[in-house]
User: Fold these one by one.
Assistant:
Number 1:
Amino acid sequence: MTSSADIGDHMALGVGAIIGESFSIFLKHLIPVALMALVPSLLSLLASGALIGVDVTLGAAEPEFNASFGFGAWAMATVLQMSFYSLTTALLVQLAYDAKLGRTIQLGRYVAPAIRAAVPITVLSLIAGVLMGVASIALIIPGLWVYAVFSMIAPAVVIERVGFGGLGRSANLTKDYRWPILGALILIGIVVVIFNFIAGFAAELTADSGQFVAALAYLIPTTLGAGLSGVCIALIYARLREIKEGVSVDEIALVFD
């Protein structure tokens, strides 16, 4: 079916509507969104801090690769950070659909599906990250395009339980819509960068107050950025399922009942 809102032979993704609804859900449910992102972020900070130091984790100090701080510790900390970020995304995907449908936010109900999805999301995100890096060696645009191709890994794994088939599922879902998806993610990414800049500035400003205060000053803005990003990804996934497969949001949310 085509209309004036179509892109060629394809229905429009509706980037403006997705961005607007992402902010609406984010602001309306700010506290649960922040909690969903804060807990994994705090655990990530503690785990990474134990391996490479809190200052390095916060970006307040540069890693020094010596006997006490090897590349292995840094790599392990990076994987742990990605694992907890994957857990955050898996939690927020579920919250976003309940919020979109006007259902009660039930934080405890999201934990088990998110934990089940965390490992495959982490592994697949690492693979996607390597592919992005390879694509970016020549130019930045191919790297961003690859990012759009695999941007739906998390919701596909959480919602459809495709496990390590998430790469292929994301590639299929995003086909024909990768540029508008990238546009939406860049717009949200600009806001996330602002949050992260505030986080770094806040951590530096509170450095003399102790690591705990600096960590909180860093975590609060970064968790807000992660929360907004997670909600946006969930809404893009829902829109793609609606366009390509005729699946409504309430049908997507049924998997959690």
Number 2:
Amino acid sequence: MKKKKNFILKTLVVILSIIGVVAAVIWFSMPTEQRNMILFMMSKGESYDNYQEYQVIERNEEALAPASFEPSVVDTISKNSYTVAITEMVKNEKSRMLKKGMVQTLGIDDYTGWQVLADEGAAEGAYPFGPSPLSYYTAGISSNLHTQLLKTAKEKDVLLNNIKVEVLNKFRWNKMSSSNGAGFLDVTTTNIIIDSDVSQAKVQDVINLALQAWTAGNALKNETVIEPHLVINGNNFDTYKATPGTSASEISYDVDFLLTSVTSSATLPEFLELEVPKNEGVFEMLNTMDDLEFEIFAISESTNNSERPYLTKITISTPSEETWEIYADEFSDKNDKPLAPTSLEYFTLGTALCLTSQTTLTSAMMNLQYTDYRVEDQIDFKQEAIDSTKMVDHIGTVHSYVLVASNESQERLEYFYKKSLSLCFAGEGLKSATEMNTHFYLNGQPIH
């Protein structure tokens, strides 16, 4: 009996040794950058005694004051819009990817804008601290088109009983851990779903004009000018800096208005075709991570609020598979205070937060030594041929600043900066012309 036990023990030792050798071979065959990132994602953050408690979405207490540039409204006469976003990391041991984004539309009297939490990944059965950056980005795209449909229908005096907009973005990394790694927005698929008793011709006319005025969609469809800047050290972290923070719930309120919640079960689009997630083992995930592909969708629906005609509810997916409900609203005049962030504020936030995620991952891959970093953006949204059938909305320029406090060499910091920009899905979606697939449905039936 004793010999049998010894034989079993020796066999187990041999098997475990073989598994260990195989695991070691696989581990050390991976690029150093990939190993560094895996270790970063698997490790917990530092724990703190005191945490600032945030809601997932809440109003900014004061107007934003970027350190790297002076926010500017170039044209005060036209209907152009200028939006500023500032993002910073939030220190929390449960998430290495928790961040805060602050956004403000400029030129609005006594308006300070909004603050959101963004997170990526959560343990099974636990909600993340907020939607992902690309969830906000996709929400802004869908809600922005929804708003243009509502406005165009009103201007054309066409009664649309119900409007729903579904947007699906397909994102991809290409050789993420390599020196020339890049992130892409490959294709944006959009479904415009309308219920109405008016003729198909009138509905199609509304849709055509709304698509011309779809600021976020035209920004993706065409190449957008991005002016990136790197700011190293200096007195840039006095006002905005990474601090310990948390959120007690996925529920957010502004006074008595519900701003955010997680749906009891995943809400799916009506007409979008989603890819079935792959059930990969650990080794398969390690092999595919460098060329990761994933989808994010957003569904924008009318709330039918007579006092706030552009208030929309947006259901958004996240990489963690749960779906969130958030709201978007628009300004009715210069003294108006929307009930929720505007569609273009979500779009601006998603762009800045996505870049912040990539700076986090790039610094982890490089094992970069730093004190702090953040992103500051201003996006100039433009309108041309206003009040005509040739009206077009688009982005004029994206002014983007990456600020880092670090004693690393200039060469290393330049590499960190350029790689972060290259990996940013949202930024590349703007920089390059994105494939746009748009479909229309009237009373449940496709129209061509």
